[in-house]
Amino acid sequence: MTGSSLVYIVDDDEAVRDSMRLLVESSGFSTRDFASADLFLKADSADLGCLLLDLHMPGTSGIELLRLLRSRGMARPVFVISGRRDPAQDAEVLAAGACALLSKPFDDQQLLDLVAQAISA
Amino acid sequence: MRGEDVEAAQDALDFSARDQSVLLAALLATAVDGIIAIDPKGRVLLYNQACERLFGYPASEVVGRNVKMLMPEPYRQEHDGYLGNYDRTGERRIIGIGREVVGRRKDGSTFPMYLSVGEGGLTGQRFFVGIIHDLSALRWETEQREGADRLLAQIVQSSEDAILSVALDGTITSWNAAAERIYGFSASEAIGKHISMLQPAKRAGEEDRLMAQLRNGGTIEHFETVRLHKEGHEVLVSLSIAPVHDANGAVIGASKTARDVTERKRGEERVLAMQNELAHVGRLSAMGQMSAAIAHELNQPLTAVANYAKAAQRLLQSGNLEPRQIQSAREAMEKAVTQTLRAGTIIRYLRDFVEKRESRKIPEDVNEIIREAVSLGMVGHSHSNVKLTLTLHPALPSVAVDKVQIQQVLLNLVRNAMEAMAEVEKRELTISSDTAHDGLRITVQDSGPGLAPQVAARLFQPFVTTKPDGMGIGLKICQSIIEGHGGTIVAQPGNPGAIFAIHLPLA
User: Fold this and answer.
1) pTM listed for this prediction
2) Does B289 touch chain A (CB under 8 A)?
3) In CATH terms, is domain B21-137 a member of 3.40.50.300?
4) ipTM rounded to 2 decimals
5) Amino acid B28: pLDDT
6) For residue A13, what is the nearest residue in chain B, using CA coordinates?
7) If we measure between CA atoms, which residue out of B368, B321, B377, B374 comes closest to residue B346?
8) CATH class of residue range A2-120
9) What is the pLDDT of residue A101?
10) Residues of chain B contacting residue A106, judged by C-beta atoms under 8 Å apart
């Protein structure tokens, strides 16, 4: 699985993105991070192992990016991390193809377990 | 006596002896006062021209008739009795004395006159001579003056304002009804006392200073100060003081008018308190609308802090620590600290925003406010590759502003600019200050995608936003604050990006 071992992070908040990167890397994973969905879309993501995705971002939103990726047949796990949760939005996000939903701030072990599962899969 | 003088005296005597009756007739005819003579029965013997003018009767209608026709009732009835009484007892009521009596004109009207009566005798026949001085004009003048004085006194007494006068040494010399009401002292309690009895200790010397100002020719108008009521509480008054001059123009005292403005002041304070309350409610309401966005704002740094701390913990947990891991953990902790500061800044911003307080405008160095606001606004963005340029005018005039409010505005604009540049490669934030027409100008320019024309036009309306998370309240508050300073805020195309330009007036 060397071809798809990187943890991709898309979050517009620089501190959240950077801290998430460091957390994931502290557990031995490699990462790539992007400040927006649009920047992510411009990059080659062939090595994507899983995606940690923020929902609320300027430009293309998290859920729009998720739908776009699924419509293109991207099958890697996507974990949506949101500052605001409500049942209707959760249902929408899951329907769009998210594997899990986490609230900010999240439990680090829960996230790292999900990442570990995704990368080893 | 020398011979010449004796001769001259003799000539005069000769003249008077020859022409005495002519002289007397001239005297009677030209006298301004009325001259009248009557016999002991009251019959008129002589009635001069002046009498004709005074009483309106020609001499022909009066001479030979009883003088009582020239008197109004009840004197008319009583006059014969007086004469008879004098005849019998010699008791003088008026003869040789003179007094003020009332005359009656032919048309029935009466007039005041001063009558002096002398007694004479001619070939054994006694007669009385009366000299009549018309007092009408004098009385009229006196009445006018007294009437004016009375009117003035009534005006002073009925005035809503305290009106009092003081002598040069500060002794109170008059005190109207309103002064009694406003200060609690009755006129009898106040007159004769020193004006300083109304002066609270904290205003010591004020009356002396006002008096000195007055002596130097000044007047004092609508001077708001505090005076003491008899019962010890303070009265807020607006004083107007004018000098009182003597006939020679020298200042001999002062007249003071004091209006009780306690109620007006209370009213003003109530209105002010209500305005502040409204502003506070307005901010709270805006707060409520923003709360979701704010919760999100706080959640971001808290998430980052938790992540950094956990990452550091994990890095340090591994059994065989490499220097690279230790360095990474140290950096993670530093970043966690930075994020707690970011959270703190958001909370302080909120507190300042919600805090119930009056706007305090004091002269400030606007450049300093800009520097502080920018450093607050850049918290959390120090690694965003933003090129920050401050172009500050080195000699800006200081303007009276509410520092916290202006910082709120700048912080908001800086944060907006940072967000606008999130997706562009070239990130340049330029903040400038400069003098402008009648004031100064602050601009915040970003290199973001700029504003669509339809958004720019509606930008300062509430709930208009370009941000997916935005509530569209921030710029509305910015505008309220700047307008509260008498200034303006506009958005302009920046080529690239957008420019927000603030104009603050000097005065």
Assistant:
1) 0.39
2) no
3) no
4) 0.88
5) 86
6) B300
7) B377
8) alpha beta
9) 94
10) 303, 306
